């Protein structure tokens, strides 16, 4: 099957966006899984941290279904939602829309460029749940905030939160990729403790309202950034009284930075996640599901200016975390 794709990223967390609004694609559930595995494969012709199926919706402007490179479907994807939001805003010539996701219809708003020539969007990350059963995390407690979590680590303290995909967040003095990778792998192998797997993040407090987040993503591994994880990490710093509600928190990551604001109304948290939505290129691929192969059958249309602008934003971010 031939599929037109838009390669895009949020904070260098990169995705393949497939437009099922414009194109009459009809994928079965099994095909969606296979397409995710084939197109995300970094050894293949494309390679990405996930697929964003952008589909018609009966209850919103469009619907986003996000699949990880291992073929698992995630409840939510913050960096991906900004990319889908931008794409649909442009299709509808609109600056404020609603996107249907697995558990909620979420608002997406175009914002002023947060950096020179960087298309910027803000998405609502919700519902937010602190009950371990909502991840699920099989421990008999009402909440797990800044507590040890045997057998993942003897010295780290974790906070469990679902936004609504599952996250474990640990505030650390120094982020060690090797330790994060090991704990991320062990957490996702422990199907008794975490039956659906989990995204694991380490958070470094750089200053008031300024953090650095590194994430081992469920279904992927270490990525440049994870939007829901940066949101969950911002919430965790508020719960730990390191930052305040309603104040902008700049969240640096390997791929750049985003701005998160944690709000609470009637006891419920929402996290506003603002960041870039950058296009890399358009192309067309031919996917042969029978023999599990993908070949590119068009010349890429590269968004050179966007890429160059984003490199400046990334350089700025890196200068802030030295
Ligand atoms: N790996 C995640 C989904 C992608 C989330 C991430 N890319 C984001 O921007 O939120 C999960 O399985 O929950």
From TrEMBL:
Site residues by UniProt (Could be important to modulate the pK values of the two catalytic cysteine residues): 167, 217
MF terms (GO), sorted A to Z: diaminopimelate epimerase activity
Source taxon at top rank: Bacteria
Active-site residue list: 77, 77 (proton donor), 226 (proton acceptor)
Pathway(s) it belongs to: Amino-acid biosynthesis; L-lysine biosynthesis via DAP pathway; DL-2,6-diaminopimelate from LL-2,6-diaminopimelate: step 1/1
Subunit structure: Homodimer.
Identification of the protein by name: Diaminopimelate epimerase
Origin species: Pontibacillus litoralis JSM 072002
UniProt gene name: dapF
């Amino acid at each position: 099957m031939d599929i037109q794709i838009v390669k895009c990223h949020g904070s260098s967390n990169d995705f393949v966006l497939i437009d099922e609004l414009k194109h009459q694609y009809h994928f079965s559930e099994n095909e969606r899984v296979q397409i995710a595995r084939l197109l995300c494969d970094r050894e293949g012709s494309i390679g990405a941290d996930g697929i964003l199926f952008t589909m018609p919706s009966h209850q919103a402007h469009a619907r986003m279904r996000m699949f990880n490179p291992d073929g698992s479907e995630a409840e939510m994807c913050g960096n991906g939602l900004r990319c889908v939001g931008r794409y649909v805003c442009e299709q509808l010539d609109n600056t404020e829309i609603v996107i249907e996701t697995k558990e909620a219809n979420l608002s997406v708003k175009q914002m002023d460029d947060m950096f020179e020539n960087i298309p910027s969007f803000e998405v609502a990350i919700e519902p937010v749940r602190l009950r371990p059963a909502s991840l699920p995390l099989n421990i008999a407690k009402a909440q797990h905030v800044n507590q040890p979590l045997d057998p993942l680590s003897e010295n780290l303290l974790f906070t469990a939160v679902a936004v609504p995909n599952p996250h474990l967040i640990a505030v650390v003095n120094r982020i060690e990729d090797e330790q994060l990778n090991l704990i991320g792998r062990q957490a996702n192998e422990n199907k008794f403790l975490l039956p659906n797997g989990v995204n694991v993040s380490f958070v470094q407090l750089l200053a008031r309202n300024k953090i650095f987040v590194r994430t081992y993503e469920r279904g992927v591994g270490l990525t440049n950034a994870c939007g829901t994880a940066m949101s969950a990490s911002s919430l965790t710093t508020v719960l730990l009284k390191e930052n305040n509600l309603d104040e902008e928190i700049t969240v640096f990551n390997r791929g750049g930075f985003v701005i998160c604001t944690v709000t609470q109304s009637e006891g419920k948290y929402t996290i506003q996640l603002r960041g870039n939505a950058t296009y890399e290129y358009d192309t067309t691929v031919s996917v042969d599901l029978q023999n599990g192969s993908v070949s590119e059958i068009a010349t890429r249309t590269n968004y050179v200016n966007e890429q160059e602008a984003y490199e400046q934003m990334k350089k700025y971010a890196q200068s802030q975390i030295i």
